[in-house]
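Kindly go through the following sequence and its backbone structure tokens. Advise at your convenience whether the structure tokens fit the sequence:

___
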Amino acid sequence: MSQEQSPRNALQGMVIMAGAMIVLPAMDAIAKYMATFEAMSPGQVTFYRFFFQVACTLPILLAVFRWKALSAKRPRMNLLRGALHGAASLLFFVAVKYMPLADVFAIYFVEPFMLTALSALFLGDKVGWRRWAAIVVGFAGAMIVIQPSYEIFGLKALLPVLCAFLFSLYLFLNRAIGEADSPLTMQTLAGIGGTLFMGAALLGGNALAMPDFEMSLPSSVSGLVLLLVLGTISGYAHMLVVKAFRLAPLSLLAPFQYFEIISATVLGYTLFNDFPSFSKWIGIFIIVASGLYIIWRERAQSRSLKSSETTA
């Protein structure tokens, strides 16, 4: 067993992943707060999210690795990661402006199903009928959450689905890049890519007079502080996720993603008095159960494959 896959490192990876998943919804709560109480457009919040991410990570990157740190082995892939992440974050922030946090997270968690399907269709990963059935059931659970939200919010209720698709593509690129660059380099370049993408999107949307792309500066000191916190969480929490995936296998860490629903529900209720209805809790349960089943099947197949290789 390699050092990277040792039980001690796997435990560290799980702890890091759990901590990151608990903290990350605070970023989305800040985005909802800025849109609700500071009247800042989701497009502008998304731009600041990536801008301050770069502002928080770049000085440390340069202090540790000097300018050579920016000469990544795969710079275009990292910038594309940032653009995809920027587009996904924009859709998510627009969704949380109009919808409860827990609802958006619940719908967004069709992402593991999309990632599994994409892996089967484009990477040749073997996905048996049980996992395909779990994907279908998971999407059915998402529909239970989407249906009442769609009646209230219209097409905006589908934004988390599109966000999940873009984020699954982002994860594809993480897999393609692998360990070619350090987590700090990856996050800094992704922040630059997201900032450039959102700068262009913000200018275009504002020129078309789209309200969710209205340009503005923070209207208060507290608003500026929250945006700084948003960028800090964005940069370092996602860096922790990258680190966790280098310490432990995907199948071991994936269940911890569902911690976000717990954190989002607590923040949504505490800050905005939002709490999922009983029917939505049923949908959330179905999504989580289906996702955990897919993860369990992947781990079972992985163990079976290793066992057959050992006895061969």
